Amino acid sequence: MATRRLTGSVNDARLQRRYRAEQRFRIYCASAVLLALAIILTFFSNIISQGYTAFWHHEVQVTLDYNERAARIGTFALDEDLRDIASRGATRAIPLQMRNNPELAGTTETTWVPVRGEIDQYLKGGRDLEPELRRQVDALMEQGVIQSGFNTRFFTAGDSKLPELAGILSAAIGSLYVLFVTLLFAFPVGVMSAIYLEEFAPDNRFTQAIEVNINNLAAVPSIIFGLLGLAVFINFFGVPRSSAMAGGLTLGLMTLPIIIISTRAALRAVPDPIRLGAFAMGCSRWQVVRDHVLPVSLPGILTGTIIGLAQAMGETAPLIIVGMIAYIPEAPTGLFESATVLPAQIFTWAGEPEKAYVEKTAAGIIVLLAILLSLNAAAVLLRRKFERRW
């Protein structure tokens, strides 16, 4: 007599196959999560291991002699033994200083200046030197004439052709200008467009086509917006190429769909009873939106805006198209001056052959990641602080 097997029993072969399939699926999913974490950890460890050395550097103590020859060529202000040690950039401005301050002639000054890039890399263990120069550097280290310290110049100087003098100040200020223009252009236009589409526009084929195209624009490659910015803002409106205004408006075009979509989602999340209650009190549609819907949806709107700005800050391709990849040693002082941004600065350093620029590139990426993570953290905190559950 055949044994009858009950459906749902632990001995049911079909049920056991489903359990085994579920177990395999859970293993696949867990493996995908572990793989993603491994990739992220590898990326961060690789970047940090290459870039942390850029946050400290070596300096040599020199006595600057403001003599007659130094007024023509700044290198002559250094002791002859230290001319191959100190950075060439440390004495480059001496002739100009002596012209502007004649009282410096005949005086001396003891100060600390950066060592040359190759010597800095040797002291960090990144490369070797010629035997004679190596012995000289080692002797100066033992005497305390060369010392290491925090590299404040990395944050207070602009770009330079000498890696030991290169910093991110001009790119950081350029990024602030660009983000300011992006916010000024994209935020009001995006929010007002979303309010019209969500609260006022009739539901017909025209508005549906606009909505579909806005959603599609959010997925368009960023370099396309660069071409659009080049054609519209630079070639048609005559905005100066390489300026923060051109870059900010271009990134504003790219950020616009993100702000519109996030704003519409925030407006749609406001419960209808709030609107109906306001209408019942005799409010017009504009009063309902201004006094009841917008205040409630503002945290969601600001969160979407911050995320859009964070994405814009990390973009490079559209800014290359509008010329913001130029060599900019000095920080811009206006929206129409030539400027560069942090991602473009990192891109420029990544193409330099000197090894010292490798750590500069990685350090720039660390700074950029820190800013982007801070912006995203601010968006999360803002949403959690002001979020309302209905």
UniProtKB/TrEMBL annotation:
BP GO terms, sorted: phosphate ion transmembrane transport
Topology with respect to the bilayer: Multi-pass membrane protein
Annotated Gene3D superfamilies: MetI-like
GO cellular component, one term: plasma membrane
Positions of the ABC transmembrane type-1 domain: 172-379
InterPro entries per the UniProt record, alphabetical: DUF3333 (IPR024573), MetI-like (IPR000515), MetI-like_sf (IPR035906), Phosphate_PstA (IPR005672)
Domain of life: Bacteria
Record keywords: Cell membrane, Membrane, Transmembrane, Transmembrane helix, Transport
Pfam families linked: BPD_transp_1, DUF3333
GO molecular function annotations of the record: phosphate transmembrane transporter activity
Residue stretches spanning the membrane: 27-48, 168-197, 217-238, 244-267, 362-382
Cellular compartments annotated: Cell inner membrane; Cell membrane
Coiled coil, from the record: none
Homology family: Belongs to the binding-protein-dependent transport system permease family. CysTW subfamily.
UniProt name for this protein: Phosphate transport system permease protein PstA
